[in-house]
């Protein structure tokens, strides 16, 4: 794509990283909007369409509800294929994988879509699909140990035998398929859990060797898609997210700038723009259909897997209603990723648009493409008193700072989170006495399903005297200020309470 075309995209409110859909979505439904579009985007017929899901963690029939809902949406979009980027099931049992297969064939009988065309299965295993059990793990999951030993997929050749019997598809640890002229490479989960290091089986080529052996099929400007469970190290959501591999896939894929990696495992929400990475290749986190895991560092989050201090005055967000997936549409000059909330059947935001041929664009460069979020005119902060309970169960008198949520408007981004500061006026200097970051309760949902008001508590003991500890200095004043932030950390203008004398 030329710089001239990118310039026209920006003039029409679109960016390669976070602009509105250029394809079949409602943005093009208006004749006036369509007329304003540059001529090159009026081709609304993609060369390839496929659905993307990860981390469905199916256990019992009830956990297939949103899987079926997502697959039926894909069927309505007439997809050519569906990607499952691992952790299709939760406990690594054949009976669970049979539920996934049964759901697939209810929606795509005979692997056929609405028009009778074949819908390709592009499935790879994740760690939960093939993990081996201990008696302790089975007891924790309330699974009889004998059942786990009999049904688990990690033993011997069972991962191959069960997959082929249930899906009528040959299983290989590394494979390549062609769908409508586009290549897909799949790498199944075979990592050492302690080091996130890929382990090849006897006679199996390394990922790098496999890609090099197929260089004639893969190299060039035409994109190909790589599917595995773990994120390539140092790419999407890095360095903050957990669940990256040891760098094996990164080293292999960076030789192919046209590669597009599709990976799950971290459960990072799709409304975080950093889930799309464009460097030496393109890397896309595929979120999760079962539940999501927010980044740590906020008053209502924690770093997954790390010890919780328990001092926070808000419980950790547990987005078990987070059900994210995507539809990918490939055109000659771009790839569009439709991000969807399958809990509510709503869009998670404008489609991601990746220009073709691929080129690198850092998070910092992408952050400049859209102004940071801003509170609407007249927005105000309110403060109330009450009692907050820490995660350790300790109750403490507190002030609750409330303010309106910030949604996308006027070409500006939706707020990813908020910075809430307790500020002091010390003579003529404004000082930040305490600062917290907080998510809205539904920041990971579609905007229409998010909360309209956000609240962040502060213990009275954190406040200046006379509310807090005795301080001989008098005449200070304090206030609360709130700034909306985008996912790149850029902040909009603050709204504040009045200064209060103490």
Description of the molecule:
By secondary structure, the chain is an alpha+beta fold. It folds into 2 domains: 276 residues, Metallo-dependent phosphatases (Purple Acid Phosphatase, chain A, domain 2, 4-Layer Sandwich), CATH 3.60.21; 120 residues, Immunoglobulin-like (Sandwich). The chain is built from 12 helices and 23 strands. The strands form 5 sheets. Strands 1, 2, 3, 12, 13, 14 and 15 form a 7-stranded mixed β-sheet that branches. It has a 6-stranded mixed β-sheet with strand order 4-5-8-9-11-10, with no helix packed on it. Strands 18, 19, 21, 22 and 23 form a 5-stranded antiparallel β-sheet that branches. Helix 3 runs parallel beside helix 4 and helix 4 packs parallel to helix 8. The N terminus is likely disordered.
The secondary-structure class comes to: alpha+beta
Task: Please state roughly what percent of the residues sit in beta strands, choosing from under 5%, 5-15%, 15-25%, 25-35%, 35-45% or over 45%.
Answer: 25-35%
Name of the level-1 CATH class of the largest domain: Alpha Beta
Named CATH architecture of the largest domain: 4-Layer Sandwich
- For the termini, the CA-CA separation is 60 Å
Helix content: 10-25%
The domain tally reads 2
Helical run tally: 12
* Total E-strand runs: 23
Principal-axes shape call? globular
